[in-house]
Hints:
By secondary structure, the protein is of the alpha/beta class. The chain contains eight helices and 15 strands.
Amino acid sequence: MSSTTAIGIDIGGTGIKGAVVDLSTGTLLSERVKLPTPKGGRPADIVDTVKDLLKTVSDKAAAPDLPVGICFPAIVKNGHTMSAANVSDKWIGLAAEKLFEKGLGHPIHFVNDADAAGYAESQFGAAKGVPGVVILTTLGTGIGTALLNDGILVPNTELGHLQIDGVDYETRAAYSAKEREDLSWEKWAGRLQKYYSTLEALFSPDLFIVGGGVSKHHHQFLPLLNLKTPIIPAVHRNNAGILGAAALAVKNRA
Ligand code: BGC
């Protein structure tokens, strides 16, 4: 397989998924394999699960030596995970990239999950060819954000943790808050309105893109928002992390 092929792995709070990606088209070349995230989310346990997953994915694609990109829900700076909003605090300050390379016996590239999703949308999705400032948000357990300017990613923006009304606003406006508090679409949209208006006031973006699994129900909540900035659903939703991690692994190797 050519250098336009890579493996992307997306580590989340409940599941770890991966697949082989064709980077010339932004499509999956293998079936997506998903394993449950080990309880407690400790680094060593996650490395073991990723090892199993990588073996399954590589065997299926008969491709042992492809670049591997891994995305994770934390600030990732120079291969180190620097935060742990919804994961074990054992990740704070951890040399994660090195740990995975040692465990997997394979070079990898480690990135923030929302950055991976944003990069995927810039290469193969809703942000492709869009000039100016684009903010992608993923609405899931937390709120992940990716900031792009003329297609260039500014990593680790962490705008899900904006303080609004004195609280870390992902605790109010993430999809997990809707589920936890059993909010109607209207009620949840009220919180999203506050969140996106704040982003709008701070960044004057040209486009908002909304990702995460819930974005498949975008017609239930995006029309309820009243913003100056166009707001549209992501194209890749659940595969965005896999696609972006794979693409960034190749970009980083080049
Ligand atoms: C984390 C981010 C992550 C986002 C989405 C937030 O709680 O701080 O790093 O991108 O959740 O998973």
